[in-house]
From TrEMBL:
<dbReference type="GO" id="GO:0005737">
    <property type="term" value="C:cytoplasm"/>
</dbReference>
<feature type="binding site">
    <location>
        <position position="176"/>
    </location>
    <ligand>
        <name>phosphoenolpyruvate</name>
    </ligand>
</feature>
<feature type="binding site">
    <location>
        <position position="29"/>
    </location>
    <ligand>
        <name>phosphoenolpyruvate</name>
    </ligand>
</feature>
<feature type="binding site">
    <location>
        <position position="394"/>
    </location>
    <ligand>
        <name>phosphoenolpyruvate</name>
    </ligand>
</feature>
<protein>
    <recommendedName>
        <fullName>3-phosphoshikimate 1-carboxyvinyltransferase</fullName>
        <ecNumber>2.5.1.19</ecNumber>
    </recommendedName>
</protein>
<feature type="domain" description="Enolpyruvate transferase">
    <location>
        <begin position="16"/>
        <end position="428"/>
    </location>
</feature>
<dbReference type="GO" id="GO:0009423">
    <property type="term" value="P:chorismate biosynthetic process"/>
</dbReference>
<dbReference type="GO" id="GO:0009073">
    <property type="term" value="P:aromatic amino acid family biosynthetic process"/>
</dbReference>
<feature type="binding site">
    <location>
        <position position="29"/>
    </location>
    <ligand>
        <name>3-phosphoshikimate</name>
    </ligand>
</feature>
<dbReference type="InterPro" id="IPR006264">
    <property type="entry name" value="EPSP_synthase"/>
</dbReference>
<dbReference type="InterPro" id="IPR001986">
    <property type="entry name" value="Enolpyruvate_Tfrase_dom"/>
</dbReference>
<comment type="subunit">
    <text>Monomer.</text>
</comment>
<feature type="binding site">
    <location>
        <position position="202"/>
    </location>
    <ligand>
        <name>3-phosphoshikimate</name>
    </ligand>
</feature>
<dbReference type="InterPro" id="IPR023193">
    <property type="entry name" value="EPSP_synthase_CS"/>
</dbReference>
<dbReference type="Pfam" id="PF00275">
    <property type="entry name" value="EPSP_synthase"/>
</dbReference>
<keyword id="KW-0963">Cytoplasm</keyword>
<comment type="function">
    <text>Catalyzes the transfer of the enolpyruvyl moiety of phosphoenolpyruvate (PEP) to the 5-hydroxyl of shikimate-3-phosphate (S3P) to produce enolpyruvyl shikimate-3-phosphate and inorganic phosphate.</text>
</comment>
Length: 439
């Protein structure tokens, strides 16, 4: 397996730049997580075109902790995974999930299948994120699941095995709880019926899960009350392989860069339609007046520098787009209002406050409420500044886009955190014309 580079503190300076050319979209983080774990639930499978990043490496380590093996090709283009066949081992040690909330939530349900105790933890940020509803769901299924500090946050202790059953769970905290239960439920004896107590936020991510499950030969369905997956199923992708599609969350920064700073055009390849909710960035840009074309058959999106106008947009299903939309709003004429965003506060950082504070530091006029972020682009004049990436990959990348069109140089502290979802982001950014200086 290739050795992962040690992370070190990196500040990145972005100078005002013009962009253009052709770029390949990075693979999807959401699909890669699910595919790695699905291959773990299987006897084995090959995952092609994966995103190998800090977060997805955490999921690989978890599959190995449960008894599987993951072999990465020298160029990270394939992952050959020998799975644990739906019967996870009790891990020999604490499973460290680093900063990956997706990993922790998905594999908490895996731990509930093991005949013994699993302990999960992570870094400071991950240990502040809510896990309580998923722990409660495991207990409803007859397992034991506790937060060691009694606050619904990691470290977590999970004891199984569970055989399936029915759970009632809120849908407005994290869709990852639903994904975790569906993936684990397929290999229980009874299956799992999920009754949603509240409206599901980030619903497209559950559709991604259902799409990946289907590719692995597992059926999960939406019901009037929530979701259901029958038990006794086996994971086995056709031909033993699964190919990861391009990532629209990561593409959003490239598309925004094109709409703000492409004199000619910026062409993004690898944009085939899928269940990804963040494909909504195309519609958002269209509504703002961007010159953008999407060849869906060819998987190519082309953007050009455009005069943008503010809009109102809800992110209840697309929380990862909030930082990108906020930057676009800071440059657009008029006011951009981002609604339904309270759940975006429970990510790697409170992204609502982080975006408001860092864009304000760059000269934007921003109003923050609990569930709403308002950016007055007509009153904003972005200036180069030193800003804090908040140890959050999406904050770092969105601020880099803002730096393209700010007056003066922008220094982003903590640039190394792009490794979570887009490890070569700054190389790609340079490749399309951005002036990037690493410190």
């Amino acid at each position: 397996m290739p050795r992962d580079c040690d992370d070190s503190r990196m500040n990145v300076e972005i100078s005002p730049s013009r962009v253009g050319g052709t770029v390949q979209a990075p693979p999807s983080k959401s699909y890669t997580h699910r595919a790695i774990l699905a291959a773990g639930y299987a006897d084995g499978a090959t995952v092609t075109d994966p995103l190998v990043s800090a977060d997805t490496r955490a999921t690989m380590r978890a599959v190995e902790a449960y008894g599987g093996t993951v072999d990465r090709s020298a160029d990270d283009s394939t992952l050959d995974i020998d799975g644990f066949g739906g019967q996870p081992d009790v891990p020999d040690d604490v499973i460290g999930c680093a900063n990956s909330g997706t990993t922790m939530r998905l594999i908490t349900a895996t731990g509930a299948l093991a005949d013994g105790i699993t302990v999960l933890s992570g870094d400071d940020s991950l240990r502040s994120r809510p896990q309580g509803p998923l722990l409660d769901a495991v207990e409803q299924l007859g397992g034991r699941a506790k937060s060691t500090r009694g606050n619904g946050q990691a470290p977590l202790v999970v004891e199984g095995p569970v055989d399936g059953g029915s759970v009632s769970i809120p849908g407005d905290v994290s869709s990852q709880y639903i994904t975790a239960l569906l993936m684990a439920g397929a290999v229980t004896d009874e299956g799992i019926e999920i009754d949603l107590e509240t409206e599901l936020k980030s619903a497209p991510y559950v559709q991604i899960t259902i799409e990946v499950l289907d590719a692995f030969g597992v059926e999960a369905v939406e019901t009037d009350a929530g979701f259901r997956v029958d038990g006794g199923q086996s994971y086995a992708p056709a031909g033993g392989e699964y190919a990861v599609p391009g990532d629209f969350s990561s593409m959003s920064y490239l598309l925004a860069a094109g709409a703000l700073a492409a004199d000619d055009e910026l062409e993004v390849r690898g944009a085939q339609p899928s269940a990804q909710g963040d494909a909504a960035i195309v519609e958002v840009l269209e509504r703002m007046g961007a010159d953008i074309d999407w060849d869906r058959d060819g998987g190519v999106i082309t953007t050009r520098q455009s005069s943008l106008s503010g809009i109102e947009v809800g992110v209840e299903d697309t929380p990862d787009l909030l930082p990108t939309i906020a930057v676009l709003g800071a440059v657009a004429d008029g006011t951009t209002t981002i609604t339904d965003c309270e759940h975006v506060r429970y990510k790697e950082t409170d992204r609502v406050s982080a975006v408001a504070e860092e864009l304000t530091a760059m000269g934007a006029t921003v109003e923050e409420e609990q569930d709403t972020l308002t950016i007055h682009g007509g009153e904003s004049d972005l200036q180069g500044a030193t800003v804090d990436g908040r140890a959050d990959h999406r904050i770092v990348m969105s601020l880099a886009v803002a730096g393209l069109v700010a007056d003066g140089d922008t220094t982003i502290e903590g640039g190394e955190h792009v490794d979570v979802s887009f490890p070569d982001f700054f190389d790609v950014f340079e490749g399309i014309g951005a002036t990037v200086t690493r410190e």
